[in-house]
Specification:
Elements: E1 16-18, E2 24-26, H1 36-55, H2 62-73, E3 77-78, H3 79-86, H4 90-102, E4 106-111, E5 114-122, H5 124-144, H6 150-165
Antiparallel strand pairs: 1-2, 3-5, 4-5
Helix pairs in contact: 1-5, 2-5
Amino acid sequence: MPRKTLRPPPEVPSRRRRSNSGARADIDLGELPFFIGYALRRAQVVVFQDFFRTFAELRIRPAQFSVLIILERNPGLKQSEVASVLGIKRTNFVVLLNELERRGFAERRPAKGDRRSYALCLTEKGAVLVRRLKRMVAVHDRRVTAHLGAVERKHLFRLLHRLADGSN
């Protein structure tokens, strides 16, 4: 019995890649474009590259940005709560928070009713930074989704949230 091969649907263009040296080469990606993980990772690379360029002067990385937004909206959360909601390992979160604290953007305060925990808050400097970051990320978001129409962008978000939530 002949083996079926996956063929890209008409909307998936053939991929041309450049090697690290810049030389053009045709590379057969096989079934990769049809794996959700591959497609999401390729999109993430594009988004993160633009994010890093956008925030380079401020030396803010995506995880730091996420923590600052969470703290702005939810002052007083414990480290474990922030790490958990963002899916960051506890040890990695401590390093990330130490850096935000060292730079004067966030601080640990004793948690009410729990001597073993700290409540996390933005500093005034952190609040000023978050306002600036929000303006910058709006420009970044528009730039990386510029080739999508408003309906496509809304649909993309709806689909991504469905995937993340595990709902059908």
